[in-house]
Design goal:
The chain has a 6-stranded antiparallel sheet. By secondary structure, it is an alpha+beta fold. The longest helix has about 35 residues.
């Protein structure tokens, strides 16, 4: 999700996304100091290689617990207050792939944040750098990439092996995006709001790819429009429009292939709204997989928050004091978004731990444990989980208000020290309550065994 500053409640710019891969595949949260990267990047995933600029900026990131299959740093904010989130996986249609196939050793998701975020000073620079790399070296995947700074938000989409477009999110609007190409009409004369591969127009024209030549609809030309979109992708976009623009989207249908990319909200959007959307699973509808609906309806559409989420983040920019990297480890619906001030220089040790097997010393696994326990006795345990989430969320929001007031009295070095201190304090606050909740749920679960048999209250 991307939100322009005039569409948000507090004037901030927000970009957020769920990283979905495997149900048990930990993420870490780290800060790279300036100058931390080598001269040559070489991917362990596919061998993609790129010479990097001489100096890299400090930036936060959420890499995998192992780099065996690549880094997958995914999301972060650099020292120049530029945010990047990569990627939202998507698909290119076969008409395009037949002419411009994916490039096996091109730049993929796992490398994008690492070779772009440390070297850019604005969101627009990020679009230009990544676009140039894709055009020159190609990509082995179709992806959507989010950028933001303190002025604007951009969404870039790749298609085929080498082509891409990007659109600035209007300041009074938002966009919700699922796993499909979403950008629609491109205005090639509007360089303030659109960027693109320099040869994309001729590529489409020369290869007769545009079914409606009177316009240039990127989604229509390059995207897929099949049955899987109707049940896997479109309903998630529909649910976002119903949440943020119910008056404008009153006639939209969940399976429609024509849902708009850019929308104006009916009312201003808060950070809580964005987090709730990324944590949602069609609550209040027949499609909620943990709701009371018919079993067919409950599993009809793919929810936004699901068991395979590794982490969810909202990068909040253009704040009056300091920007925030909000991070929910594990399944967002069962976790909480912990705020990390973007100028921090180190992350808590518990966020740097965790392998593929459960560990009580890993932030990922602490949040994940509560989710697993909640799943085991859903209706008994879910109210306790929601109560704990609400209590933590309120405490975290109150802490941010107090931090904002304190920051105005500090110089830059003091601000960094405060950011590091508060990273530990606020993550400890959340993790302590989740550990306590896990202990409570385990204790209560001992009496919920199917081997129970009631004959006497003492037996």
């Amino acid at each position: 999700m991307l939100v322009g500053k005039k569409a948000s409640l507090d004037g901030s710019i927000m970009i957020g996304r769920n990283e979905d891969s495997k149900a048990a595949w930990p993420k870490h949260f780290i800060v790279h100091p300036a100058g931390d990267l080598p001269e040559q990047f070489v991917s362990k995933d596919n061998g993609f290689s790129l010479k990097l600029p001489a100096h890299s900026a400090k930036y936060s990131a959420t890499p995998e617990w192992t780099d065996k299959f690549g880094l997958f740093e995914e999301d972060g904010i650099n020292e120049f207050d530029v945010a990047m989130s990569a990627t939202e996986s998507a698909y290119t249609n076969n008409n395009v792939l037949a002419i411009d196939p994916l490039v096996k050793d091109g730049i993929n998701e796992e490398a994008m944040v690492t070779v772009v975020l440390p070297f850019i000073h604005t969101a627009r620079e990020g679009v230009a750098r990544l676009g140039q790399i894709i055009a020159q070296f190609g990509t082995g995947e179709t992806n959507g990439i989010l950028f933001a700074d303190n002025d604007e938000a951009w969404y870039l989409e790749t298609a085929g092996g080498h082509y891409w477009v990007a659109q600035q999110i209007p300041t009074d609007s938002y966009a919700v995006i699922s796993n499909q190409l979403s950008i629609q009409t491109i205005d090639f004369n509007d360089h303030d709001h659109f960027m693109y591969h320099p040869e994309i127009e001729s590529f489409v024209a020369d290869n007769h790819l545009n079914p409606q030549p009177e316009t240039f609809n990127f989604r229509q030309i390059f995207g897929t429009h099949d049955g899987s979109d109707a049940v896997y992708n479109n309903p998630r976009v529909w649910s976002g429009h119903q949440k943020f623009s119910p008056k404008k989207a009153i006639d939209e249908e969940p399976e429609s292939n024509n849902l708009p990319f850019i929308m104006k909200p009916d009312q201003l959007i808060s950070i809580t709204d964005v987090q709730n959307y990324l944590s949602s699973h069609f609550e209040g509808t027949a499609f909620d997989p943990i709701g009371p609906g018919d079993s067919t309806d409950k599993h009809k559409y793919r929810p936004i928050s699901l068991a395979k989420t590794q982490e969810s983040h909202v990068l909040q920019m253009n704040r009056p004091t300091v920007n925030i990297h909000w991070l929910a480890m594990g399944v967002a619906a069962q976790s909480v978004y912990v705020p990390f001030l973007a100028n921090l220089s180190e992350t808590p040790a518990v966020y740097q731990r965790g392998k593929s097997t459960y560990s009580p010393q890993s932030a990922y696994w602490i949040f994940k444990l509560v989710g697993v326990l909640g799943d085991s006795h859903l209706h008994q345990f879910w109210p306790q989980l929601e109560k704990t989430q609400n209590e933590i969320n309120l405490s975290l929001r109150q802490s941010i208000v107090a931090i904002d007031q304190e920051l105005g009295k500090l110089d830059e070095s003091q601000r960094v020290s405060l950011a590091n201190k508060k990273a530990k304090e606020l993550s400890d606050l959340a993790l302590t309550q989740y550990r306590s909740l896990a202990a409570t749920l385990i204790t209560q679960a001992t009496d919920l065994s199917p081997l129970n048999f009631k004959t006497d209250e003492n037996l």
